[in-house]
Every structure is written in C-alpha cells, then in structure tokens.
Amino acid sequence: MKMFKNTLAVLLCVAMLFTFAACRDKGDSNAEESTQAAEQTEETSRPIAAAGLSMEMLSNANKISSLIGKYNVITVKSESSDGSSFIRQVFKLEDGIADISKNGDTVSGFINGFNFTVENDRVKAYCDIEDLEEGEEFDDDDFITEYFKEKKLVEVETTEQYYKLKSLSEDKEKSGQRYFTFDKETLALTTVTYKNSVGNTENITISFNGELEAFAKNITEGFSGELKKVTVIGEFVDEGETSYIDVELRLPSDWEYIPSGDGRIDYYMDEAMSENYAYPGHGEDYTLYISNIFNEEDNGKS
Q1: Residue 138: its pLDDT value, please?
Q2: Tell me: the pLDDT tens digits for 57-71?
Q3: E strand or H helix at 85
Q4: H-run or E-run covering 164
Q5: Distances (CA, A) of 276 to 132, 233, 271, 273, 285
C-alpha cells in the first residue's frame, strides 16, 4: 500500500510537470503569435518625397489665397471627445473675403473691414480708427496650413483618391498619433484625426463649396437689410502728428462699433466730450466722438 502511494505520487508529479511544460509551450506559442500579429499590423511609412510630395507643395496648395480662388466657401469643422466643437467658414463676398467662426456658443470673425464678436443680442465691431476710412484688410493667416506646418510628416498610405500622412512630432509620453489626408489631385487637406493612448480624440474635416452655416448666414445677411449710420469723429496723435477723422459707417441694425487701436481711446456721445458713451440701441443712428491722445512722458500714452 505504501509502495502504491509512492508510485501514485511520482505519477502525479510527472503529470504536473508535463502539464506545466505544455502550458509553457502554449504560452510561448501565444506570445509568439501576438508578436507576429503586432508585427503584421505595425504601420509602415516612408518619406513624403518618395510619394513626390514636399512640405512646400502642401503649404502652397492649402493657403487661403490658393483655395479661395477655386472655392466660394471653405469650411473647417472640429469635434473632440471632450465635447468641444468648432466651425470656421471662409467665403467670398462681392467686396472681399469673410471669415466667421463658431466656437461652442461664441460667434466671431471678420467681415466688410471689421473684426467682430457677438455678445448677447449685439454684434460688437472693431476696427482701428486709422483704418476706418479704408477698412481693415483680411488677414490671410493660412488657417489650414497651420494644422500641419512645423511637423515632420511621413507617408503611410496612397490611393487613387488621397495621400494619408502622419506626424512624427507628437507627444511620445501620451502615445498620440495625428493623421492627415490630402486630396491626391488638388493636395487640399481634407481630414485631420488625432487619438492618444487614453482615448482622447479630435476629428477635423475640411470641405469646399458647401453652404453657409446659419451663424455665418445671419452675419452676412445683416448687411443686406436696412443699415444704420454711425458717424465717427475723432483725433489722435501719432509720432507727434495730429490726425483727424470724420467717417460715416454703415452697419446692420444690431451692430455696435467699438474703437480699437494703440494708446488710450476715450469715446463720448457729444462734441464737448462730457457725455460718456452708451450704446443707443438697435436701429439708432448716432455719432461717436473719439479722443486718442499720446504722451511721450507716459510711454507714448496718456
């Protein structure tokens, strides 16, 4: 009986060793298969020059000055996993270019020589007083090229329709990766996608010749209705020379002009400059008196 127990114990040990070896071999096999699968799915890339591309080509193709000559409306939409969203539209007008954005619930932009922002039920328009007669020019900030400039891009996929590039300059600690899709024929950027190791994402789409969004249409249509008259009378001293301005602005009913520029700018409702400015209300014509005085003893301002 004792011998039987000893024999049974030996057999159990042998069986356990066999099972352990089998599990180890299986585990090694699974690990090898996982490594092979990872190697098979690992993304390959090559320099963009191998695809006949250069950063200069991509930048030139995506400048506003290049795109606005081909398309009437350029729309950029961005959505992030944190719930934030952004829409920006640049489009042609009879007398120039408009640039209007909606970031969350905030609408702002540039149109007809004015920068503006919408606050409550009022549109506040800004323009430096020295630019009032001619209006400020549209700032061609190449808002599409800013998504990929100063990044090192490599090609990961090319089809008949597009080039797919990725950035090598992302944050290594977050294991994030950003991809760019360019139309193969025009080289216009059409999508930007980003995702990091913790699941944060951002998706940007760029489209061309679409319709104006409601927020951009409302701003634009404001200039097609009855306009109110805002007269701006003022003086300012720049480098010892005094300049005078007397300009009549035509603005939509719910717009308010706010002076902007260098130096301290005070503005009033009367010529004697004793009545502080207060917005008269929608549809009301009014005159704004501006005092813009520079003083060398006070860093050029007083």
Answers
A1: 81
A2: 999 999 998 898 899
A3: strand 85-93
A4: strand 162-167
A5: 21, 15, 11, 7, 17
Q: What is the pTM of this model?
A: 0.78
Please, which residues have CB within 8 angstroms of residue 127's CB and are 6 or more apart in sequence?
Answer: 113, 114, 115, 135, 136, 257, 260
State residue 250 phi and psi, 5-degree precision. -115, 115
State both tokens at 177.
């990766």
Amino acid at 46: R
> Is pLDDT of 169 > 80?
no
Q: Which positions ≥6 away from 291 have C-beta within 8 Å?
A: 234, 235, 265, 266, 267, 268, 273
Measured CA distances, 113 to 25, 164, 173, 232, 250 (Å): 74, 38, 44, 15, 11
123: which 2 tokens?
């549109």
Q: What are the boundaries of each domain within the chain?
A: 48-127+136-215, 226-298
- Give the length of the chain: 302
CATH code reported for the domain at 48-127+136-215: 2.50.20
- Residue 12 and residue 14: Cα distance in Å, rounded? 5
Radius of gyration of the chain (CA): 32
**Percent composition of the chain: helix, strand, coil (DSSP 3-state, to 5):** 25, 40, 35
